[in-house]
């Protein structure tokens, strides 16, 4: 039996769940894993803060954040504070001190990965981050270990439950974006200030972390192309249905090699037959294509205290098994992550299919004007819908566009916008069939 | 960098793929995992055998099976021979010699698990078997490590590609069982003698392995309740569709505790909305319910040389990281598996819903006779279909039965069979909604 003593930083939704688990399930965990996890200390930013989970903060374990790492009774630091301020300092300090880190902090890894992995490599101290992506789904370990034989060719999926909940409601209940968002807020699936989720930042953080793992070197969040779901309207979802598609906010990683990688987060039309089209609500789902294994899919709860705690606990057990081992072995079965990874391919050069919705005047010649612009830009049209039943000054016009680099589409859209017959900014979403 | 030397036993579909991978991808694997895998020796039963994969057996590495384990240049034995004869001897010898084993042999684990895990525990030498269940899906590691925090409450899924291919063809193309089987054989998805797959033995081996991992102690294959798919007819699949169900061969494990566990393999009606209902062809898919994390789903290729090799290679890397470590740490992050595990709950006591199809004479009073038998046995009927359009001496009569222990249903069916109006053996399949 191995005994490991942890210091917990943060006592929010996830921290509270981890605390409750360790306080009540340590014996069970020991029987399953052979590891006895003891909680030595808890550090929080504000001990007076009211916490919605209602679990009382155990005052006897409370220490100051700046004391946590140095404590001799802390072998592993479990960072669940979030953010890039105090959390960053704690993580770097802990790695420097040779104490393995377990974290759920995707923002830290995505925005300060270079610094974190440099320190981890320098001191030969591993950092575990299963809980940073896709909550309780053991995706990170699968990418690192279970699929280690593979060149990862394509990874895509739903990694933000808030956006998926909103898009599901819009699709199934035909709600407007505003109504669906309000409903998600009422149910606690969206924050009062929802921008972090609905603008795609959270999904892009996760995409950067996954791309880092997949390529073996740090991928910078700031290079990731991000579009949120504010522009998705109920009308677009209905038109997508007519065309046999569903609209989902996807993280897409492909073209993975040591020098370059395509990483993007945006609303995406996917065929209704794609498994992800039937993932509703706050569930996360990821598809991983390896050159040896083929396509593997993982689905499950992507957030929430207990599901995320499940991932944190498994990392603690993993970290325990790395404690006291020769640091040259590092993460057991994973090579070190290089602090400087591939650069993200510019979105302008990314080729995909597109859905366009234009708002045009209902007059003869309009179609000719628009299609000439597309033709001049060498952009092929795969289908057009001019839906019935729209009366008034303007009508919607929907184009499905063949594979084209974004650069060309962007130029064409800017020319189309200037046409007199076009009365609103064109709406554009990418369409992906993922080679099927 | 760690270097590990393996001895490969077996050169069939999986062995050939592993050999090809290591011969061509060792450098890539080293860059991903930090482990250099060297192949020292290969042992096969019959060096003269023609192998369908067409990869030439490297004669310079060939050794006799009885020499493999003792070789000083073999650190890890990779057993891909299959069967319980020579493979069993090799695995036990290797564990005894303190050399970790990687195997894809579900039959060996399911039928001789007690002996294998006793030896593994006695010599403190781990055995890895990711490739034994669900091919390339990292299910075993997820159960052992990723979900280590959880009490596993329910595991079910499609673990035999041959049966799923046949049932999919029957469902989508309305083929008879015989035609679907012949087609599967022609495409190489079923063996010339398909009984091992279609009688559910392969799925039951896998169910025993998963139940062993989930409960932490060896579950005996011979106690697992097994029904194959020979009795599933095109008519039953059509009636199931009418009722809103699909028929799948499922492995179901639940009621998991150290003393007892429910483990069964049988054709099962599942609601069409269940994700597994849309898993077609040879894909495998497993749902795992943990008390902390909730429901996690895994899908992917469950068989085939490369997909299975992907799992074998990841186990080799895992095994490499266990080489030379203190044996008290054992599998890194997994407690030892107890050689004697829970006993399997008798199928007679298992409660479920049922689909019954009776072949009856088309006369007044028949329904009354049958429903009285069910009534006397305290078996509740949730719905009845007497389909239109059946002419002739006999007509089908379909009952959906509420939750009942199999004991009662068995007795009632035997009484029903004796009624004059019942002209053929009743067809019975279990119905599962998995609490949804």
Chain-wise SSE layout:
The structure is a homodimer of 436-residue chains.
Chain A: E1 2-9, H1 13-33, E2 35-43, E3 62-63, H2 65-68, E4 76-79, H3 86-96, E5 101-103, H4 106-123, E6 127-128, H5 139-146, E7 152-158, H6 161-172, H7 177-186, H8 195-198, H9 201-215, E8 225-226, H10 234-243, E9 245-254, E10 260-271, E11 283-290, E12 294-301, H11 305-322, E13 343-344, E14 351-361, H12 366-376, E15 381-385, E16 394-405, H13 406-417, E17 427-431
Parallel strand pairs in A: 1-2, 1-4, 2-3, 4-5, 5-6, 8-10, 10-13, 10-17
Antiparallel strand pairs in A: 7-9, 7-11, 9-10, 11-12, 14-16, 14-17, 15-16
Helix pairs in contact in A: 1-11, 3-4, 4-9, 6-7
Q: Which oligomeric form is depicted?
A: homodimer
Give me the secondary-structure category of chain A. Answer: alpha/beta
Main sheet overview of chain A: 11 strands, mixed
Helix content of chain A: 25-40%
Coarse shape of chain A: elongated
Could you give the distance between the termini of chain A?
A: 49 Å
Would you tell me the overall average pLDDT of chain A?
94
Unreliable stretches of chain A (pLDDT < 50, length at least 5) are: none
Secondary structure tally: strands of chain A: 17
- What's the SSE pattern of chain A? EHEEHEHEHEHEHHHHEHEEEEHEEHEEHE
Tell me the greatest interface. Answer: A-B, 57 and 57 residues
Can you count the helices of chain A?
Answer: 13
Radius of gyration of chain A: 24 Å
- Range of strand content of chain A: 25-35%
């Amino acid at each position: 039996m191995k005994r490991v003593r942890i210091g917990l930083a943060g006592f929010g939704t996830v921290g509270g769940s981890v605390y409750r688990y360790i306080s009540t399930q340590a014996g069970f965990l020991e029987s399953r894993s052979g590891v006895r996890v003891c909680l030595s200390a808890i550090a929080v930013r504000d001990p007076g803060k009211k916490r919605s989970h209602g679990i009382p903060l155990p005052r006897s374990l409370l220490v100051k954040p700046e004391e946590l790492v140095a404590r001799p009774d802390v072998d592993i630091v479990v960072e669940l504070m979030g953010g890039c301020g105090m959390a960053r300092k704690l993580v770097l300090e802990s790695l420097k001190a040779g104490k393995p880190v377990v974290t759920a902090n995707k923002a830290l890894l995505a925005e300060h990965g270079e610094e974190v992995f440099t320190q981890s490599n320098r001191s030969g101290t591993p950092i575990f981050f299963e809980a940073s992506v896709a909550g309780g789904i053991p995706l990170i370990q699968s990418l690192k270990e279970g699929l280690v034989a593979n060149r990862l060719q394509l990874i895509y999926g739903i990694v933000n439950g808030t956006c998926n909940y909103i898009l599901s409601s819009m699709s199934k209940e035909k709600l407007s974006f505003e109504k669906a968002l309000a409903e998600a807020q009422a149910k606690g699936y969206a924050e009062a200030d929802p921008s972090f989720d609905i603008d795609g930042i959270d999904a892009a953080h996760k995409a950067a972390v996954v791309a880092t793992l997949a390529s073996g070197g740090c991928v910078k969040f700031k290079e990731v192309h991000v579009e949120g779901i504010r522009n998705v309207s109920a009308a677009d979802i209905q038109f997508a249905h007519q065309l046999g598609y569903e609209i989902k906010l996807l993280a897409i990683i492909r073209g993975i090699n040591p020098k370059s990688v395509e990483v993007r987060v945006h609303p995406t039309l996917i065929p209704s037959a794609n498994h992800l089209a039937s993932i509703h609500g706050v569930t996360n789902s990821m598809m991983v294509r390896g050159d040896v294994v083929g396509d593997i899919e993982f689905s499950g709860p992507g957030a929430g205290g207990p599901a995320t705690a499940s991932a944190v606990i498994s990392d603690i057990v993993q970290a325990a098994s790395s404690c006291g081992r020769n640091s040259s072995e590092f993460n057991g079965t994973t090579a070190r992550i290089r602090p400087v990874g591939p650069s993200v391919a510019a979105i302008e050069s990314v080729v995909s299919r597109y859905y366009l919705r234009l708002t045009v005047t209902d007059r003869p010649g309009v179609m000719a004007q628009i299609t000439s612009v597309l033709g001049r830009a060498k952009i092929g049209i795969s289908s057009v819908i001019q839906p019935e039943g729209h009366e008034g000054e303007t009508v919607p016009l929907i184009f499905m566009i063949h594979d084209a680099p974004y650069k060309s589409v962007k130029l064409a859209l800017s020319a189309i916008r200037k046409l007199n017959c076009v009365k609103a900014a064109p709406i554009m979403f990418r369409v992906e069939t993922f080679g099927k």
